Amino acid sequence: MKLNKTLLATVALLGSFAFAKAQLSEECTVMLQIYAENAKARNYDEAYNQLGPLVQKCPDASAAIYQYGAIIYEDRLENKIGDEKQNVQGLVDMLQAQIDKYPSKVDVTRKKVEIARTLFKYKMGTNAEQFNRFDAIFKSDPDNFTDPNGIITYFSLAKAEFDAGNMDLKALFTIYDALSDKINVELDTRSAMVDELGDKMEAGTITDLEKQNLENQKINLSNYDIVAGSLTATIGKLAGCDYLVPLYEAEFDANKTDEDWLSSVLNRLGAKDCTDAPIYLKSVKALHDINPSARTAYGLGVIAKTSSEKFKYWDQALSLGVNKDLEAKIHYEKGNALKNSGQYGQAKGEYLAAVRARPSYGVAYLKIANMIASSAQSCGGDIMSQKAVYAIAARWAEKAASIDGSIRSSANQYAANYRARSPQKQEVFSSSTYKSGQSIRIGCWIGESVTLP
Q1: Which of 220, 236, 252 is the endpoint of a domain?
Q2: In a domain, 83, yes or no
Q3: How many CA atoms lie within 13 A of 415 on its CB side?
Q4: 277-291 core/surface letters (b: 16 or more CB in 10 A; e: else)
Q5: End-to-end alpha-carbon separation of the chain, Å?
Q6: Together in a domain, 153 and 195
Q7: How far apart are CA 85 and CA 141, in angstroms?
Q8: Is the pLDDT assigned to residue 9 strictly greater than 70?
Q9: Where are the alpha helices (DSSP H) in 79-147?
Q10: Which helix (H) or strand (E) segment is 299 a member of?
Q11: Which of 154, 342, 395, 446 is the most core-located residue (most Cβ within 10 A)?
């Protein structure tokens, strides 16, 4: 299947890499045509025999030489034809040639990752050499280091280096944080697309092209959710409260005036919800004494005892400027506090602000769904209206599932439960008050409409 996908991609690109017959010798033109026909027909053995002479005599004739060459070597490796080590080197040479000869025509970083993954797959080089290769690629172009398998492999190699004593915990967490941030960017970008296209789907204004894009982005979301889960599993207990709290407690006295160390402690403990540990409190106060900032204001809000005090510090943090992760978390925590005090309308506003900051923060949508469902009795004027409230709740739960794979299963369960309580066709048909296609407006704090089935 991999070969089929690669072949399709190559054929699609081939149009942009014209053979430029007028610029080639007659011999190269003929050799290239025969080679390409064999490769397209999947006569890989014959194409393999033609590849060497073609590279030797006509190395710059076309990018297709090396694109098809990569497919040929993948086939030989997959079917165990010839010497494995020679085939691995051949595949690497084909990929490297694309980088060296046609850098403007290919995704250079993706090709470099393909090379690194190939060498890893076939155990070429030591763990340190393999790690250094991925590390150099990521650091040179983090924006385009988007291959899900590449990210997983890179971090697994980093963890192996840590386990072997070649890397300290701080360096491992630095890589973990960088990759987590990268995954969050990818998740947010695709979640925003899914949310927007999902709204178009619901409104009936989506095009066929947009439908396909919606499905593609859902697949991408699923892939990056898998990557995020893999990183969490790989870091394992090292990122848990049981490991981090005693570790930081032991290191506190030696680092209580080190701003970078204290910031790292707050980031790590905050990310893992270890904020009730005494070390978190000590670190927040120590860092605030050294350098009051948005991060410390957030931390002081976490440990504050009253909602008003929490909001004061959190609003201060927002005014000082925070990254999108922390911005989403602050709005989410404010939403929780308002929800718990029964202020659903304001809580909804905070949850929506959380999703604006982090478009893959689906748990905020799920909170809205649950608030709406719990308001069916108070916001629905009659039985049908109350059922309509559940339809709105289901809609929000489905939105949560569509943008956040980490809660998709539970969100879908909520959505199914709410859908079961929503107006059904037979109920509408039997009603003397309502009819199919009629819109019911739910006021209250919800302020949304439902079209009856």
Answers
A1: 236
A2: yes
A3: 16
A4: bebbebbbbbbbeee
A5: 42
A6: yes
A7: 29
A8: no
A9: 84-101, 108-121, 127-140
A10: helix 294-303
A11: 154
Residue 373's closest CA among 99, 181, 365? 365
Token look-up 């005494």 returns 278
13 and 91 fall within a common domain:
yes
In a domain, 432, yes or no: yes
pTM of the model: 0.77
Structure tokens at 223: 């892939």
Range of the domain at 396: 366-402+410-453
> Is 334 inside any structural domain?
no
Q: Which of 291, 309, 325 is the last residue of a domain?
A: 291
> What are the pLDDT digits (tens) for 211-258?
999 999 999 999 999 999 999 899 988 888 999 999 999 999 999 999
- pLDDT bucket at 381, cuts 50 / 70 / 90: confident
| CA–CA dist 294, 290 (Å, integer) | 13
Is 310 within the bounds of a domain? no
- How many domains is the chain partitioned into structurally? 4
Helix and strand numbers (H, E) in the chain are: 22, 2
Residue 276: CB atoms within 10 A of its CB come to 12
**Are residues 83 and 176 located together in one domain of the fold?**
no
Instruction: Please state, in angstroms and rounded to a whole number, the distance separating the CA atoms of residues 403 and 212.
Output: 16
Domain shared by 182 and 214, yes or no: yes
Q: How far apart are CA 126 and CA 62, in angstroms?
A: 34
Residues 406-438 have pLDDT tens digits of: 899 999 999 999 999 999 999 999 998 999 999
Task: Report the DSSP pairing between strands 439-442 and 448-451.
Answer: antiparallel
Pair 401, 411: CB distance under 8 Å: yes
Running DSSP on this structure, what letter comes out for residue 226? Answer: H
State whether 9 and 89 are in the same domain. Answer: yes
